[in-house]
User: Fold these one by one.
Assistant:
Number 1:
Amino acid sequence: MNKEDHNIIKIVFLTSFGILIISGTIYISFLYSQRQSNNIILPGGVTYLGPSENKNATPPQTSSPTPVRFTALSTESWKSFGGEIYPYSFSYPSSLPLVVFPDDTTDSVAIAWNNIPPQINILLNMEFMDKRDPKSLQQSKIEYVKNWYRYFSGLKGLSKIDKFTNTNGLKGYKAIYINTINQTPNVDVFFEVPNNPDKLIHMGSGVLDPELFDRMVDSLRWNSAHS
Amino acid sequence: MTMPSLFLILFIGLATRLLLVGNPGFLADIAFWKSWSLAALDHGFVWTTYNSNINYPPGFIYILYLMGKIYSFLGNPHDYNSYWSQNNFGFLFASKSIAIISDVLVTLIIYWFFSHFSRVIPSPPAGGSRNLGHQAASSRSQRLLDPSTPSQSSVARDDKLRLFFSAIFFLNPIVILDSAVWGQVESFGILWTLLAIILIFNRRPLPATIFFTVGILMKLQNIIYIPLYFLFIFRYFDLRTVFKSLAVATATFFMVNLPFVLANEMKQVLYLMTVNSDYFPWMSLNAHNLWWIVSGASGMEVTDRITVFGISNAKTIGLLIFSGIYFLLCLLIYRKPTPRNFLLVLLMAILAFFLFTTESHERYSYPVIILLLFLYPFLERKTNNVQKYFWFVYLLLSLAIFFNIHTGLVINYPQNGIGILTKITTSQLTLLNSYVFILGFILLLPYIFSEMSYWFITIPFLIIVSGITLSNASYFFKRKVSLTAFKPVIEKQDYGTPQINKAVNSIQGWKSWSRLSGNYFYYNKGFGSHANSHLVFDINRKFNKFTTDFGVDTESSTLASVVFKIYGDNTELYTSSKMGRFDFPQHAEINVKGVKHLELTITDAGDGINNDHADWLNPVLYK
């Protein structure tokens, strides 16, 4: 074997070794990424999230459409979701696509389903009473919930409010508000936060099947050790 | 021997980066890039500027398109769940690959530069002028870096040195953190500036200007260098070359923006180049600098519109300090236009911008670690102490920059940083780091004053003092100030944005600009607003009296109805009667002694905001 052949073998060996190492590092990196949370993260603000698949496919509506509700099979497995900033957690069906927003101080969770922009389909958010109105801290929680609709131009009154406690011991208020076209499509639930008198956890039923929503509301817990 | 060693450095650095690519990095940046690259991929460059919230310069849209294109080979960007998932490895790989390739290219440029130093920097003619730019490279450094010198020992030292500099950059934790972990593109931005610098040193100013202009359109921070760049061309070459370079820059600008030119949408280019001004009006965007100290390590929570001296706000003071230092750098490059000084002024300009202006990001200091390396061979290194001094400053700034960028990452995404470092990162440590940065800046000043007298240090101070005096002249001498000299610390209204000296409909563009008026009484100064409006000014207890006229603007319809209210530190000081379109402007005189926050409020008078265009007219504060 002459020197030139020897060099070629050396180059081939080193190149193969290099490719092997690089491939290995990419694979390890891939495995590492798959161990990270697979939350859907959407950019903040109003921006492009992809083409609307139903564009041009929807026939003109001649009457009010029946709202489509997300539901899940009774056999479906449920997962747990925890807040990024605040120590709340709740269970949800694994097929429900949940998203969060980067740097969102209200620690909101939204539903990305049926081409409805998640920004207008919020499932849960932290409600800071003093940010709505500093004077609201002087009110009782139930008074705050009764008057919550006043912060939204699309709502005009309260239809019903019930006080309850969920299975995890959180005290809550279930409210149904009347919108400006005299409909009551949603259920809004407000939970008191232990040791945080200025905060409430707000959950909205939105596109969820009522039974599914009730089960999720019931599963909400607050890890007070971190509060 | 050097080439295998260079390959080894590149191999180790590349493997390290690829190992870290799977880190989700700065989730918000990655999420925005997904949105913008998808928009560019689906609908093209111009469409993206209208239908996404992109705030990067127009040239970067090509890079976003490239990210999207690379990803489309690895996955389907229209598969909602996999695309937007935070651990989407394909997109992490696609987006970070741009920065990683840039890291490799910058390393090769460093290696090439140090291999060809004497050819890149032409030798001065015998007995030549000091202005030709070579005097600062001592004979020793010449021997070390000039490959034409044949001695065995010097060749070995050359090899070691160029490998050392290549490794210092490519294996630098700052560079790896920025590109492979965070997913940012600082190395991509500086790459263009480096190419321009080397071509200029090689006396090719026109190709250099092409790269320089592209760099500005790719990474906006490069805009800082423009005056220094053209001043250097003027002094290193001549005025004729400046004009030629300006022509090349203009042609390059239009070529890069060709899609916008063809679509007759150059206004979008202007928008992208200016949208970042006041985009985040905070003291410091996690930059450990002067304003991080002033805000008590809460730079992202304190607006830079607060009054800090006289009636000047933090932003104005910051810009004045930066302008003073920048003028000194211009003087240096004008008096001694050497390659050494060119590198030095670029370095000091970006460091001063990072340290002294408000709204500075933590990553703005990044170019310092590269420009310092390029400066090294030009420095006089007669003694070991001088070399030790350089490396001490380099190490100090490197540690400060790394800690700052790491803190910027983990303050948002603690799980994506280095666990131990994240745990020990405290507010006090970030404040200490800000002082270290300022110390690093001061330690670099001798490199300026070895080229000019220490007396020149008075010039920045004179500029800063003159600037502050001028901006406060009305307050000190006339004892009255128009409120329009203040920027509101809080501004909120239910339609449009507050307009200074114009009615609110002026937001629709220059064709709709109209003067402030109430029932055809016209005013030069004031705020054009719209109910419900809330403007808060930090007048910092400097005034005794506030006077203003107010009324519904002539441009509104006959259905307008509003009420004007004035508050001082949350106490109601004045409430007007309900005013309509045909009411003449009213007048108010208010005692504001001891008031820090003056609040001007316009309500819709309880009947909705439609048509409620209303103005604060000639608002004046009296000392």
Number 2:
Amino acid sequence: MENKAKKPILTIDQMTMRFGGLEAVSDFSAHIQPGEILGLIGPNGAGKTTIFNVITGVYQPTRGHIYLNDQAIDHYEPHFITHFGIARTFQNIRLFQTMTVMENLQAAMHHELSNIKPDKIMQKRKQTKKGASDWWFWKAIFKLGYFKKESEQREKAAYILEKLGMLKHKDELALSLPYGEQRKLEIARALATTPQLLLLDEPAAGMNPSESVALMNLVRNIRDTFNVTVFLIEHDMKFVMGLCERIIVLDYGKAIAMGDRAHIRSNPKVIEAYLGEEWKDVIVG
Amino acid sequence: MTIPDKKTLRIRIQILLTILFIIGVCILFYFAEENLNSYMIRILSLIGIFAIMAVSLTLINGVSGMLSLGHAGFIAIGAYVAALLTMSVQQKEASFILMGVAFPINTQALSSIPFFWATLAGGSVAALMAFVVGWPTMRLSGDYLAITSLGFAEIIRIFLLNWNRITNGSLGLKGIPSYTNIWWSWGWLLITLLVIGSFAKSSYGRALRAIRDDTIAAKAMGINVFKHQLASFVLGGFFAGVAGSLYAHWLTSIDPKPTTLGIMLTFNILIMIVLGGLGSLSGAVIGAGLFAVLSEFLRFVESDMTLFGFTIAGISGMRMLVFSALFILIMIFWQKGIMGRNELTWNGLYRVIGKFKKGENHGE
């Protein structure tokens, strides 16, 4: 990763998302720098998950644009967005429950076989996605050169699982894993899509303090090992303050503060609007 | 890696075992054809046909998780297309007594075509229809797809009922050459299993199962849900058409009644795949076999019975009553069906054998 070029990997440009009369997100702008861990916090209903859904193509923004490496991606369907290099996890765990851990990761690699019509973004990405072709469908049925692909997938999946310390679970069904491991599997599955940008939607939800400390280290390790940029939503203040290098605070669909930890800690608007007076001690102390 | 794989056989050994198994089945069939009476042979071919229907519906319902109730529609298309292609011109002129035969059907070029090509054509037309129907309806899910596909199958049936000059209306097609024997039906079953099994076990099948488990997550993992579901629907439709062709040449006369190629057939296939285990291809074959054997075996409950000197007259339809009762019992006590979502594999067999003689020598 080039450190000198500080060109943002993802740019959200004055994005507004409106559902009927409700403006869930209004005029939201942000830049995500390559290699950073950016946190998005805000009270319930502030529009955090909506921002994720707009980035990943679940919703089309009412106004504004989203750029991945200077290419507008806001009119693509979710599976294209993943193909372009943005992967996400979900607030409520959404695993492929009846499949094994290994199969979960392989399913996430499946999109590498699909041939997506070349356009501006794809021409850039094409160099990194080797081996996509029109013929995979027939190759898969008649098993021509397919076993090699399959073993490549397995190797890659095993590598990801090993880095996350989940290799021992690889043949277990996703639904039989303990809760914390399911959360980790969601991250592993997102990594299996070979993302540049990883969106984590409340990764520490439902975890106890020691588990969330472990997760903090894990997210940092993932960032360094897989060269991804991390953008995460979280409620747990300690988690966000301990992990994120920059933080955006969202309230009623508007960004009310943006900056590093110290800036957020001392920002009176944040303390008043979101954190409340009683939280002051926790954060400053 | 540090964690060893589960005990598996090498891929070459598996292929070898499969080939040996197929040869074994062929030898069995050869002796069956020599020694069994023609009734038994007919039941054997029927099992093959039912198995193709069940496997193709398993791909759509079980593997992809789309509740389609329109399978009989594709079967009917395959049956009519193939039957019209194999019948001779004379046969057509003799049976189309209502309004005569329309132009392209009555030519020599479209008559008396070899069975294989006719079957392939039946399957292709059914696949085409699956594409046409699937394009708008694959955007639906769950109950909506079920109702739409049910409606589609009914539309097909009404078409067949009223398109007198092509399908001979309510009289149906009679005198279809009885080409289907165990070789044709089990041969096509082998092709079906190879293609659908290979598809379901590949990365595409994995993607389909991912869609079945969680559509939203599948989309977020870069899987084009619409394309994959459509592909599975078309592939299922193709083999339904093939099964339809085999079925027509097994029955030798087909008509658009709900009981022959209508909604009853769809429900029978559903019974087979639920019995065998929704989502398991080998389960579908077992379910189809059980269904065909049971529905013949249970004929005895319809015959006259003598109990303690009293003779009770046989009630026709009693068979279905017993069948339904059996089905309810299985659903209560064995909800996942016979195979669940597992497949019969050489590896599975290997592990079972390994369990029996554990501790002896499997330290490789």
